[in-house]
Amino acid sequence: MKKITFILLITFTLPFSTFAQQQNNKRDLRQDSLLQIDIHKLADSTQADLYLERAKMLNTTHADSSIAFCIKALSIAKKGLLNPSLSRADSINYIRLMAQAHFSMGMIDQIHSRLDSAEKKYLRAVSLFKETDSRQELSNLYNYLSRIYQWNGDQQLFYDYTKKASQIQRQEKDSIGLAMSSIAFGAYFERTGNVDSCLSNYEKALRILRLVSSDQELSYGLNEYGYVLQRMGLYEKAVVILLEALDINKKRGDEHFQTTKTLSAIGTVFSELGEYEKAETYLNEAVQLSREMGNPSVEAGILSKLGIIYSKREEHQKSLAYHLKAQELIQNTDVPPSLLAIALHNIGKQYQHLGETQKAILNFEQALELGRKYSLPKDQAVFLNSLADAHLQINQLQSAKEYALEAFSVGSIKNYSEVKMKAASILHQFYYQNGDYKNALEYITIHFRIKDSLQNVNSKAALLKMESSYILDQKQQQISSLENENKARNLEMIHQKALAEQRRQDQMLIALAIILLMCIILFFINRDRLQRKNKLLHLHNEQIKLEKEREKSMYQLELARTKHDLYANVTHEFRTPITLIQAPVKKLMAHAPDNVQETYQSILRNTNHLLQMVDEMLDLARLETTDTKLHYSITNLNLLIAETKADFAPLFQHKSIRFNANISHSDLSISTDRNRLKMVLNNLLKNAWHHCPEGGDINITVTKQDSELLLSVINQQESEMDSSDVEKLFERHYRGNTKNYDGNGLGLAISKEIVNLLGGNITINLNEPNKTEFSIRLPLKPVRAFPNLDSATIITDKATPMCPMEGDLKPRVLVVEDNLEMQRLLRDLLDTRFEIILARDGEEAGHLAVEKQPALILSDLMMPKVDGIELVEFVKKNVDTSHIPVILLTAKSDKESRMLGLKHDADDYISKPFDPDELIARMDNLLRQRSHLHEAFKNNPFASLQNTSYTQLDRSFLKKAGQIIEKNYQDGNYTVHQFCTDLALNRSSVHKKLIALTNQSASQFIQNIRLTKAADQLLHTDASIDGIIYDNGFNSRQAFYKAFKVKFGQTPKEFREQKVTS
């Protein structure tokens, strides 16, 4: 009887689950207008989707219609795939539709127990879903496919496909899907007898479902777990689990399906516990709900359970009535044939109990026929055992044997232990009655072996049953404890209620007092809060104000920097054309007649004046930036003023102005920025010269007062200055009413900015008529003992003739200039003295420097692509060009630009406009230095290796070359090829490098070192000359004598004798 219940529970799982879908579909059919859509007006893929939706709605109620819709969808998808211009996305969509159609038709076959057909459709859907990478649908399909194998008894495939589903669900982080797979694993381990793994998987599934708060799936999981516990005989724990499921169903408002399922399971558990009245109560309630739902298949399943209860109570006639009613409901309903087969089997069992064996056999045969037809292996095995038992009962032994052997075979193949054990018992009886004791013994042994293994499983179940009993006892004790606590609490509440009435009046008074006090406290709290809020608002406003001021300052600073950059670029652009004007003019002046000299002088004066104005604009822009740096040094004011006086002497003589300087100390030195202070003096004296009449006086006085220095410039005025002009004198571009003044009005503004930077102030006094006094006050900084930095620098305009070059070849000079006019000018200036190579930018120049190996590079600083600084870096860091001197030629005259070039190893730096003679003199000087290095290396190669005139890269090259020769000079077979190999350079590169640095080829370089070593041995040792020859790598006495005489002007013997005599 327990075996029948087990079969019923497994078989009814599918109708219960599909019925939920059926109810939802009915609701959808009532509420959704999907079926009213004219599908033929839609796109093909959309039509197919809608056909599949309709198929899902009808798959449990109208199977034929559902299959028809699936076939339509499948036809549309196949037709769509034939389109040759189909995109990849559309192709995948049509494959997905085909997969879903096969999936839906497989579900219909599974519902109606056509398991082989369902398996084929599922496997086809699997292959299609893999093409679309539909992982979620694929995992669902694996779960459905695993159930096919579960019901077919193929436990390994059941496990494998459940595992595949769980792997996808884990990757997709599908918690609910993982829980469902854990439930399937639990079912698998139940079938294989692994009780611990079975229960742990169910517990895991319930933990997940409780965490994700999924009530519907949790109710399903609790029901499944309850069934398992009931089948294991853990009835008390099963009741606890199923009651929890019932509680969840009621909270969810599920009045029918899940509640019916749970009530049916609880009734089954009570039936197993022998509490038949409780079981009837729950099952009758479930029957009532199933009738309200209008689902006869569910009602039939519950009626079968009631029939089993009456069979247990030996009320077989009543049991038969319930089973016959169940059969009637099943036959009139489109449900899986397996249910009808089980109903027929149950009826047969009751006829067998009632002694009507022939009727029992008839029902068993009908059940077996359905089992064979619809491939229900386990059900077939049970039916075969029942037929064998019935035939044995009426002594039809041969039929009993045939049925029992077939049942035993199915049980062995599918590993159905209980079926196999029952068949072995029947076969034992058959062989025993026929006197075949050997086979009888064999089958009774098999029977008891299986029984023992099942008892081991039941032992584990018994332990778990004890555990669940303990848990139930604990819960019962907790309930009793809670009841006692509630009673005590009720008595305490009555007592407290009496006391509360007495204290009520007092509490009201206290409450009023507290309320009044709270109102006062709240008043002060709100007042303080308001004050704090106002204070915070004030601070916030101040912060906003400061932020705006900071933004304004940053904007002004950025504006000043932009202006500085603009002026710097303007300066650069002005200086290049001015150079193009001045250089040809100076060249023409050298050969021009006297009558045009004045014209050329005028051109030069005006271009110089233009440069001066541009420089003043740049200085003013630079002063406006807050990051202007002052360069303090010890400045002797006596020397500074004397130098300034000498600068202005020609101007003062032109207007017969008397210039007087009065300094309070004969040797007055201060710490200041000398260049900027001189700029201030120049601007003040220039302003005084412009406004002083002919034959007037200009006086400078310098006095030291405590911690201040007072410097005054006093000059006569041609006309009295208006007092309204005084405040505007330091404004930019202001020139008063003097119309014949040719300045730009920036000098005094620049002077004021500089004085402010130095921490002082400048003022104007008009105390005497027609006299103006500019007074400067500067703070005195501490003076440390520094060397005199004001020593005069003498500059000559004479160009030193260039050193003579070997042969008649002119030195090769690479000129790099992006301005074509400047490029032509430089070529015209230098063409008579040098071989000129031209390049438009630093990138082209780099290639030409490596290829042409010029003696010198003359490069502009600002160029496109690669500028002058980058060119210097390339030249000085390249072993092929690091020896080439570089002169930077630029329109930027500021000190920072000059220092930037020199820091990157530029050999010289000349500002535009330049003096052609000065440029040529500097080029000659660099080339002469290179010639001196050649001569020094020729005379003493070892001492020259440490010469600091070489760049670091060149010194490293020469040092490495010297070390290699030092190591191998005694080897007469050491060749130039081996030398180049040791240097890791090709022969051409070594030759060019050595020619540039030493004016010697590689072979001459080796020979020079060998000769120097030989000369040293001649002077400091008594070795024979022949020995010295071969010790220093010479293989020929004649070659050694010839080379030695060329280098030293004497034979080796004469060289040694001269040393002895000296």
Kindly summarize this structure in a few lines.
The modification 4-aspartylphosphate is found at residue 860. With 1062 residues, this protein is an alpha/beta fold.
- Helix share bin: over 70%
As a percent range, the share of strand residues is: 5-15%
What is the average of the pLDDT values? 78
Name the CATH superfamily classification of the domain at 629-779.
Histidine kinase-like ATPase, C-terminal domain
CATH topology of the domain at 629-779: Heat Shock Protein 90
Which CATH architecture of the domain at 629-779 is right? 2-Layer Sandwich
Sheet with the most strands? 5 strands, mixed
CATH class of the domain at 629-779: Alpha Beta
The beta-strand count equals: 12
Q: Class by helix and strand content?
A: alpha/beta
Q: Show unreliable segments.
A: 1-41, 468-472, 784-808
Shape descriptor: elongated
Distance between the amino and carboxyl termini: 138 Å
Number of helices: 39
Radius of gyration: 57 Å
Placed side by side, the strands forming the largest sheet appear as: 2-4-5-7-6
Domain Histidine kinase: 569-782
Modified residues (4-aspartylphosphate): 860
Catalytic activity: ATP + protein L-histidine = ADP + protein N-phospho-L-histidine
EC number: 2.7.13.3
